[in-house]
Amino acid sequence: DLVRIGAASAKDPTVVLHTTLDQLHQDKEADKLVAPAKNEWVAIPASILIGNGYSWALSVTLPIIEERGWLVYVKPEPMKEILTLFNAFPPVIGAEVKDDVAMIESTFPQLGIGTVFLNRFVELESLMAMAGWLHHSRSRIAVSYIMLGSPLNRLSSATDQRWWRTFDSLPTSLKVLLLFDLKWVFFILRLLIICLREEIVFPTPT
Fold first, then answer.
1. What is the distance of C-alpha 184 from the center of its chain?
2. What gap in Å lies between CA 166 and CA 125, rounded to an integer?
């Protein structure tokens, strides 16, 4: 699908996507476009959510529509507004955000959106180390239990097939999940910065 999207022209910008997600598809058309073609899973940023989840949030969704039971990608013209916004971002902060940054930078040109550079990013794990985190585990589940006293459910965000929809068309349960994900990162970030500030201003003897 990604190969065929990259080859789509302005005269025929629509690409019908494979909707069977539990198996890889052999595509002779795609094989002709790239040689040798490697049939493998490629993650694309179908839905990007930005903000703190409290006072503001911005949802950027790829131009995917549903027609007669099929998902269709409508390859856009280069989006100057989106490119300007993304290129002007301050350092991106999040959990495992390095992979997200790499995915956006590598797939945006193929998806017809344009070239973006999000080279500046800060992993929560790095901030945790600077703030004095001593626990051996830094997974999201462990961090959520220790710092917030509650679990973080990541399974539901990986098992459904609706993330290509716009935020307004998502069911309420998934909207809550998205906003909570933003709030989780923002709240953990605030706590880590407070701990780091206290350590710098009032360092402990140890």
1. 15
2. 30
DSSP β-bridge partners for residue 61: 47
H or E, element range at 150: none
Contacts of 21 (CB under 8 A, 6+ apart): 161
The single residue listed with the structure tokens 């052999």 is: 26
- Strand 57-61 and strand 47-51: the pairing is antiparallel
Residues 6+ apart with CB under 8 A from 135: 142, 146
pTM equals: 0.72
Cα–Cα distance for residue pair 12/67, rounded to 1 Å: 16
Neighbours of 184 (CB within 10 A): 21
The residue written with tokens 């605030």 in the block is 190
Residue-wise pLDDT for 61-96, tens only, equals: 888 888 777 778 888 777 788 888 888 888 888 877
pLDDT digit string, tens, across residues 16-43 = 776 554 444 455 554 444 444 456 667 7
- Strand residue runs (E) in 45-190: 47-51, 57-61, 64-67, 70-74, 92-94, 121-123
For the chain, how far is it from start to end, CA to CA, in angstroms? 55
How do 121-123 and 92-94 pair as beta strands? parallel
As a whole number of angstroms, the distance between CA 153 and CA 18 comes to 28
Express each pLDDT in 137-179 by its tens digit: 777 777 777 777 776 666 666 656 677 888 888 888 888 888 8
